Amino acid sequence: MSSAQPCIHCHQVTGRPVMVASVEQNSGAGWAGYACPPCARHYRTAGDLAAALAGHRQVCSHCHLTGADCPTAAALREAHEHAAAAGAER
Asked: Could you tell me the superkingdom of the organism this chain comes from (predicted)?
């Protein structure tokens, strides 16, 4: 996802959203919650973000074929780096 979304943690609009929540409803459409890469660590662990990045890179034709990050992979990578640094500080 590369469209701008408000961060559910700091409430700033980010052009690099990371999905951190998904709510399903019995009736009507569910919704997803997004965070900016620095705030994603409050909702997903570094290991979870690394797994999400690896999974994304396997199914994304841009990432898989070029070896370069697409906007979604770049946001996941940045979020993972923030989460890993926060874990090292604890």
From this structure: Bacteria
On whether the pTM is more than 0.85, the answer is no
* Sequence-separated (6 or more) residues with CB below 8 Å from residue 5: 13, 14, 17, 34
Q: What is the DSSP-derived secondary structure letter of residue 45?
A: -
- Distance of alpha carbon 90 from alpha carbon 85, whole angstroms: 9
63: left (phi over 0), alpha (psi -120 to 50) or beta: alpha
Q: At 23, which helix (H) or strand (E)?
A: strand 18-23
pLDDT digits (tens, 9 = 90+) for 7-34: 999 999 999 999 999 888 888 788 899 9
Is 9 exposed, middle or buried (CB count within 10 Å of its CB: 0-12, 13-18, 19+)? middle
